[in-house]
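Final report, section 2: Outcomes. Of the targets proposed, Trichocyst matrix protein is the one most frequently requested by collaborating groups, and we therefore present its record in full.
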Amino acid sequence: MKALLILGLVIFTQAVFVKHASEPHAAVFAQLEALEDHPLGKKILDTIALQMKNKSPLSDIAKMLQDLRENLVLQQQDAELVHVAQEADCEAEIYGYNRRIDFASNEITEATIDINKYTADIELLETDIANKEQQLEILANQEEQLRQKRAEDHASFEERQITTPKVVEALDVIAAKLSAIQPEADAEAVLAELERVGGNNPILALVQLASTFSAEKLQNVQDKIAELRASLEQSIIDDQEEEVQAQLNFEAQIVEINEQRAALQSEKADSETKLGQAQVQLAAAKKRKYDAGRELDSATRGKVAKEAECDAWRTQYARDTEQRTVEIGIIRQVEQILATKLEGASSYIKGRIN
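The predicted structure is given below as tokens.
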């Protein structure tokens, strides 16, 4: 038990000697102890200690450190090449995304302008078509009224063409009878005859009454009847001429209505064609805006994802570069210690081996 206590004391004393060397190697020991805190530094010192334990020449240790340092330098160079390529890739892809975003934004703006224009055009065309339909309906009503009035007027004309000659014929009968009577007939005899005739024969009754006239008055009556007959005959001629003119006026009005209807129908058909075109253009503009919106969303999301990826690459590159710089510095520090302070370093490593 006492022997074990003495052996532990000896080991502890050696350890204290390793960690707290005499003054000539204090600086080297401090540097090497600092390296122990870094994983690579500790690994390098472990490897050197193993090689020294195996009696490897110092040149092998130097070569191992050189290879390790050069490997890190090559890794850094490769990383820089990859970083340059990644930056070029980021710049190119983000530039492409920006162009897609700009193009999609312009498409949305232009499509929105077109949508507003075509919507306004459609409203105007629909209003115009509705107005044309209303005007066509008014023309149809006017034509119907004209045809109805023409039919009524023609029916009245035909009726007059039948009745007026009958009146002329009756006047002829009256005139003939008046010319056969003797004026200034006995009033009592005439009254007796009128009472006999009654209302069954108004012409005969008129003749009987006229027989009481004086010769002068009778002639006046005959003249009036002759004038009336001439007037009626002229009215028949005038009525025929007026009927012809009325028919011509009616036909002219119908032609004018038909011309107006044809013009309105043509204008309406043209507006309907333009309406169909505007509706197709509106649908295309809406689809263009929808597609551009999807493209804008896709490009924006793609750009955000690419920027995040590029930021991750830069962060990783900076972190790896910093780590390699530290590790290369550690290797160079070990190489410098071995090259200039070999005795102190050897003493430290031997203490690690023990």
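The first helix runs from residue 2 to 19.
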